[in-house]
Amino acid sequence: MMYHYTQGEPTRQGHKGIPEGMFEEEQGLEGFFGPVSHLIKEKPSTRWTSIEGNLRPRMFDLVKHLATETPTGAAAPLIGQRLFYNNDVTVSSLWVQPGTAPDQLVSRRNADGDWLYFCHKGRGTLLSEYGLLEFTPGTYIVMPKCVGHTFVVTEPTQFFVIENRTSHFREPDRGIVGRHAPWDPNALVKPDLDRMYDFMRKTGVDVRRIVIKHTDELTSMGYGECVYDVKGWKGDLYPFTLHMYHIKPIMSHRVHLPPSVHSTFVARGFVVCSFLPRPMEEDKDALRVPFYHQNIDYDEILFYHDGDFFSRDNLHAGMMSFHPAGFPHGPHPKAMEKVKAKTHTDEKAVMLDTRWPLKRDPALDRWELTEYWKSWMVTTPR
Ligand SMILES: [Fe+2]
After folding, report:
1. Across all residues in the chain, what is the average pLDDT?
2. Mean pLDDT throughout 32-49?
3. Residue 235 in domain
4. 196 and 317 together in one domain
5. What's the 3 CA to ligand 1 centre distance in angstroms?
6. Does the predicted TM-score (pTM) go above 0.90?
7. 96 and 236 fall within a common domain
8. Residue 359 near residue 86, CB atoms below 8 Å
9. 224 and 84 belong to one structural domain
10. Helices and strands in the chain: count of H runs, count of E runs
11. How far apart are alpha carbons 214 and 163 in whole angstroms?
12. Ligand 1 midpoint to CA 182 (Å)
């Protein structure tokens, strides 16, 4: 057991009262839930002038490329383009196009784990053995392992897909904020069987093929009639949706809270957070940009969904950053100036934090902005 201890001239509280012209760096274990220290430095630790080796911050532009390029990998028809992976989780970008004939649609089934689909672009209807669900940009769909489902989209639709390979998604611990924050349990949308059969009658949907992913290989099963024939069900295992709109971010108007308060789903070995628009901290001496930090035990992926990303130049929706554990990162130097004029953040993003290191799919190299690691090298404002 370690106890709080101070040396030199520390601050009294984290993210607050940082002396003019100085920088705070947070070093934390266990995703900032374990031992944490705040170091006050004269310069940010991100002022590197060279990085030689593989360990570096990375940025990828998924907009320009993934819509038009054919994804690689044996599981591509179901997962799209794989981006990152480790034993616990796989991250991919899946495009679903409209126009498939109603009798050519297939039922998708994942025998490798649960899928969490985040709808980035497009909209449509999801048919499943449990009933109908709908999605628009900002919808999370939690699809349990081995549940058959079919997407019917009315426009090109892009999902950011997180596959949970060693556990099942659960809610974060709501702790002292009570049962109805950051979202009311009633905000979860459950599947509707009656609406699904109504939809199928009107659109002529007739699904006679199930494609199953097992050990990342695909198997196709044909049927002589429609595979969706459930007349009723009961239980606590079923797909559901949660729209970002219904998540009310937890914040303090006085001090910057750690990213863990934005946890949306937790799983073995990783956590999914939603960053949503919120007012800025009001205290005069409060840090108003994300603090410089070393999230020592976690790799971090941030997928930019929508809004104005003030923390960095040339950042737009559909980009994805990768900040591996092992060195500090934090706001772009220019964000320090820009934040003075801001009263609210306006960005919507999905963060994936993984306990064990992520590997990059080789396909990602084509979409990397290779100069990204240099973006902190601008002279820091003093
Ligand atoms: Fe981070």
Report:
1. 93
2. 92
3. yes
4. no
5. 25
6. yes
7. yes
8. yes
9. yes
10. 4, 23
11. 13
12. 21
Neighbours of 202 (CB within 10 A): 8
> How big is the chain, counted in residues?
382
Expressed in angstroms and rounded, the spacing between residue 355 Cα and the centre of ligand 1 is: 13
Burial per residue of 249-261, b for 16 or more beta-carbon CB atoms within 10 angstroms, e otherwise: bbbeeebbebbbb
For ligand 1, the distance from its centroid to the CA atom of residue 319, given in whole angstroms, is 16
Tokens matching residue 32: 């900032």
**Domain annotation covers residue 1:** no
Residue 313 token pair: 């130049």
Distance (angstroms) between ligand 1 centre and the Cα of 300 equals 6
Domain count, the chain: 2
> Do residues 286 and 251 lie in contact, with contact meaning Cβ atoms separated by under 8 Å?
no
CB neighbour list of residue 149: distance below 8 Å, 6 or more residues apart: 107, 108, 109, 126, 127, 128, 129, 143, 239
Which pairing describes strands 124-128 and 157-164: parallel, antiparallel, or unpaired?
unpaired
Pairing of strands 23-28, 36-41: antiparallel
Residues 149 and 96: their CA atoms lie apart, in Å, by 13
Chain segment 113-131, per-residue pLDDT in tens: 999 999 999 999 999 999 9
- Phi, psi (5° rounding) for residue 82? -70, 140
- 111 CA to centre of ligand 1 in angstroms: 32
pLDDT at residue 333 above 80? no
